[in-house]
Design a protein that fits this description.
Growth Hormone, Chain: A; mainly alpha; 2 domains; globular
Length: 398
């Protein structure tokens, strides 16, 4: 990989690395807003527009479709361009898109079509932002500091997964779901301003004569994925897992609002339990893999996720709703955090294929989630919300 002058001359301590600190702050601000949108956008459809399971399914499809359509292309194209303009443009674009929702609600013109368009367009920008944020790090941080830098970014993400949903639920309770989205739009603007002032230089992209065609790189990714037994097995398992996860996510908020009658504040704290479990699981992932091996650790993580997901719909059958949901979300989160699938994939893939495999991963998750959102909607006449939640946990592969 080409290294920029900024990375080579970067300060020895990340705390003195101005470029990294600005990137870190920008990502924290942006991800905090995203946590609000993850709760506020579907609750806007449910509480303001009275969404049916069909309409929530279509909203899920609109959110996941960009990965299916553009995942392969984005994973390769981002590495052929300067990353900082992509990051800033994605933030500004998402701010404008999400800011249009409270404006439309205030004017009384908010429709499901509006939500679908925003979810789809914001999904495209989020896809490019996510890949570009990973690609820009080597131009800011010296190679021997990359592990530390990624660790700091991961820890802040885990903290936001815990605090974000609770804050989002409280904000929605105090104002409304559309007004809460204003905070998300502002967070993207602040993130864009922070990224624009990073001031680090990036290596100039290679010319078309110095690199293979984009379709050739995508083809190499697919061949690497299908030609490596471990990667092929992990890809299959992950694809089915994304399918189950999307099936549950499509109806989870409907289940919590309509069947259990929970308020936005309580829903936020329930979703925060997943973040707590994920943080604890991630902390123990290395120890688990060393103790029982990487393969058994992957199986253990998927089983914990399935068990936790099975506990959630049982809350509708008991009088102790919140403990069941909290425990279920915590177990599901710990299973996701405890599974060392990303590490196993990285260790099995040649270094030059890592970004292309990331693109394949984005596309296969998009395929699975697109299919599952539609499938969860298609069984609406035959199954209750709790039955569809149970169907998701049964689908998840051990």
């Amino acid at each position: 990989m080409d290294r920029s002058v900024s990375a080579v001359n970067a300060p020895s301590s990340l705390w003195h690395n101005r470029g990294f600190l600005r990137l870190w702050i920008a990502q924290m601000i942006s991800n905090a807003g995203t946590q609000i949108a993850n709760v506020a956008l579907p609750l806007t459809a449910i509480l303001v527009l009275g969404a049916t399971p069909t309409q929530i399914g279509l909203l899920g499809i609109a959110s996941y479709l960009p990965n299916l359509l553009f995942g392969l292309l984005a994973g390769v194209w981002v590495y052929r361009a300067r990353r900082r303009p992509i990051l800033v443009g994605a933030d500004i674009g998402r701010a404008l898109l999400l800011g249009s929702i409270p404006v439309a609600a205030l004017l009384g013109h908010l429709t499901f079509l509006h939500l679908y368009i925003v979810a789809f367009a914001a999904g495209i920008l989020t896809l490019f932002f996510t890949i570009a944020s990973l690609a820009v790090l080597p131009s800011l941080v010296a190679r021997h500091r990359l592990v530390e830098a990624n660790s700091k970014l991961a820890i802040s993400d885990s903290v936001l997964m815990i605090a974000g949903p609770g804050a989002a639920g409280g904000l929605i309770q105090l104002t409304s779901a559309p007004k809460a989205i204003i905070a998300d739009a502002v967070s993207y603007l602040l993130s864009g301003l922070s990224l624009g002032s990073i001031g680090a230089s990036e290596p100039a992209p290679r010319t078309s004569h110095e690199r293979p065609s984009i379709w050739r790189e995508i083809g190499e990714c697919v061949r690497a994925l299908l030609g490596t037994p471990l990667l092929r097995a992990l890809a299959t398992s992950s694809c089915v897992g994304f399918c189950a996860l999307a099936m549950q996510n499509t109806v989870l908020l409907l289940f919590l609002v309509r069947q259990l009658g929970l308020t936005p504040t309580v829903i936020g704290f329930v979703l925060a339990c997943n973040g707590i479990g994920s943080l604890l699981g991630a902390g123990g992932a290395g120890w688990t893999a060393r103790s029982i091996g990487t393969g058994p650790a992957v199986v253990l993580g998927t089983l914990l996720w399935a068990i936790g997901s099975a506990v959630v719909p049982l809350a509708g059958l008991t009088h102790i709703t919140l403990p069941f949901i909290g425990i279920g979300q915590g177990l599901a989160g710990s299973g996701a955090g405890d599974s060392p699938v990303p590490a196993a994939s990285s260790c099995s893939a040649p270094h030059r294929w890592e970004r292309r495999l990331a693109a394949c991963s984005a596309r296969r998750s998009g395929c699975a989630r697109h299919y599952s959102s539609a499938r969860s909607d298609s069984v609406r006449h035959f199954c209750s919300l709790s039955s569809r939640l149970c169907g998701g946990c049964v689908t998840y592969p051990p």
